[in-house]
Amino acid sequence: MSTTTTVERGTQTMQWTKKDLLGLRELSTEEIRLILQTAESFREISLRPIKKVPALRGKTVVNLFFEPSTRTRTSFELAAKRLSADIVNITPQSSSLSKGETVLDTVRNLEALKIDILVIRHAAAGVPHLIARQANAAVINAGDGAHEHPTQALLDLFTIQEKKGRIEGLNVSIIGDIMHSRVARSNIWGLTKLGAHVTVCAPPTLMPPQIDQLGVRVTYALDEAIRGADILMLLRIQHERQETMLVPSLREFRLRYGLTRERLAIAKPDVLIMHPGPVNRGVEMDSSVADGPFSVILDQVTNGLAVRMAALYLVSGAHKTDEEEPAT
Amino acid sequence: MEPTAVTKFQEKAKVLDAQAIHRSLVRIAHEILERNKGTEALALVGIRTRGAILSQRLAKELEAIDHRPVQVGVLDITLYRDDLSRIAPNPIVHATDIFFDIADLHLILVDDVLFTGRTIRAALNAISDLGRPKTIQLAVLVDRGHRELPIRADYVGKNIPTHVREHIEVRLNELDEKEEVVIEEPVSASEKR
Question: Is the ipTM of this structure higher than 0.90?
């Protein structure tokens, strides 16, 4: 290293200083851009014959998932492995949590094992935030209740940027179960900060009250959300989160809010269709749409890996384990 | 390298001007051709940021002499640094752009200044993760000494003996709107000793 300067002329001077990545609400526009820019640099690693770099060698990452997850957990696991970190997966069924241990005790025990980064998913909003305040380890929120899912929104932003070349000024419609969706909330924060116009569309029973205060347009008619939109972001109907049936039946939901090829006739010719997965085929969208030419669903999955590598890299550098000062 | 943030530096001497930089690159181009007997199976890889610029220029010189296009790639060594766990926050990562197969090529690694050798160590590891070139050779504009690893350059623009605490500033038109290499010394260096 001929110099120790980390910022080069002609590039952003912004640096990542946060210990945790908890949500897009508390991120500045510059911080969001820095993550996207870092992810761009990481994307190429997964195209190499040897898909591994030594950046996080010797760091330990723990996937602490209190809710079932395949794609997010696998994505974080592969991201950590491609950065040469060691990763451990903990699920409630296999842990002492099923024996009555509290979440914080679990985290304290993990910290006693000298871990560096905790990736947390929990059914209750705010759990990652609570843990982040208590833990020295960096915390990445992998979804908390219906609150936030920052890496999903970041990979959505990254995919939009990649396909459209910009985010500012685009019309993005988020359609489906807005009420239970942390993906929707994180995306609303991220998209509006980067200058997109966001419309949310859902049956009245699945639309949170006063959602318009987040700076979005609200509609209950699917056609209105489709017309003029550059991006259609569909959400999964979350049957597991519906304590009472908020829609009469999935069939009726499909009839009113399902994206079919016929409905797409009024969409812009270069519309992009996104979905955080897993897709309920024949409910939110038909197979012909999910597998159709406008769908970028699998690109989202690919980009998720680069975004999570960026997130792990950035939080791992923001705090050093030998630091004495408490985290902010 | 700890005190860089606080210490101020002032120019001590200009060691290369625009013409001297150009002459060095032309000579290195000839040396590369002489040693590799042409540009067949040859590729250049520049280390970000100024090494990448120099590799582009070197490729032009090679093409002017040998009349054959030379492949050029850009290497970002950030993720291979040996001090990642010691510096906070983590430095910004830029992309590596080597979109050709490096297997069985003669790779010329290009950087602006050869100092401790740690950047080159990182670059060698990064390259070996990308494939297995036939040879890796190193071209630098300036060798300032003070190696901390057993590494040497095959092609050197100029050897400049320096004090460890001095800086070598390479300024290139593409990035700095200036074309020169200067030695900088810490302001009031005498007091600190």
Answer: no
